[in-house]
Amino acid sequence: IHIFKVKEGVNYNEGDPNYDLFKLSMKVSAKRLFPNYVFLDAPFNLQYYVPGRPETEVATMGCRTRVMGNVYDPERQISYSRGNLSFTSINLPRLAILSGRDEAAFYQKLDAMLELVAQQLLDRFEIQAAKRVYNYPFLMGQGVWLDSDTLGPADEVREVLKHGTLSIGFIGLAETLTALYGHHHGESEEMQQKGLAIVKHMRDFCDQKSQAMKMNFTLLATPAEGLSGRFTRMDRKRFGTIPGVNDREYYTNSFHIPVWYPISAYDKIQKEGPYHAFTNAGHISYVELDGDTANNLEAFESVVRCMHDAGVGYGSINHPVDRDPVCGYVGVIGDVCPRCGRRSGEALAPEKLAELRKKYPGVPTFCGCE
Ligand SMILES: [Zn+2]
Q1: What is residue 31's predicted lDDT score, i.e. its pLDDT?
Q2: Domains of the chain
Q3: 256 alpha carbon to ligand 1 midpoint, in Å?
């Protein structure tokens, strides 16, 4: 995944030395879906940023993992030479269903579950930490992890791994709110405040655990493409179908506004932005643009700027991208390709294919019937 780091004074505003690259990145993303955007000016990223030291810039691994703060070694709160050790995600809607609209009961169950997950992460850590340097010949043997260069081959890696993070994730804030209060955070400001309170509660737990253990417990906005469907199926089996809660194929990822809920790009960003500050193990907000807007670079840029101003740490803009393998046209293709006039699924006569190849040289062509 290509990521463009946005930074005021570097590339964000007209007159910044690399403003041209910011512009170019949006041209590329509008055409190819990547890069995504990391916002180094978000307060929770800016607090680590030291000009000229790239290791202090937040980096996003995989689709959203973020490793930055370091309770174990506050002198080295950097993104290099560290990593996430493991994460476990909580099925929030299930806790809400079991609480039967009783907020206090929900928080009690949540506290118990947070403690259970923390203990489970520590159990896993114990297995990892008891390994020796020779068990990780690249990461530890070649000094990739912080301080691993001070260890001998037979030394335990425990202290080095404490630079890493143990993360607690969550699924389905929207369905949790619906189960507890009857509607979700996309629908009212009151629910937005309830949602923020739940996520802040989980983050506070992670921070307290971090201080108590002098280890890095962090809160993850889980990217659970598989898990969100699995949790939903399990809960439908156990509780039956509950309208607005588990009556769809998937629980909504992390703190996202449900994808099926009609909301403008601007409002979605405003709603999701504040959750980024709490989820220090990683987060992402997606905006879906229709095909026409995607080719409108001004509209594309206004979405990126909206994310920047709303406190989003990491954002992605999706839009439909079709490609005609015969003529190479990229954009929205309905039944008929706007460039060469070929119908979707149409098998071309050899003469027609030869003509198109001549007309659009350099485009790898297929049989024309795909
Ligand atoms: Zn075409």
Answers
A1: 85
A2: 3-323 (3.20.70.20), 324-370 (no CATH)
A3: 36
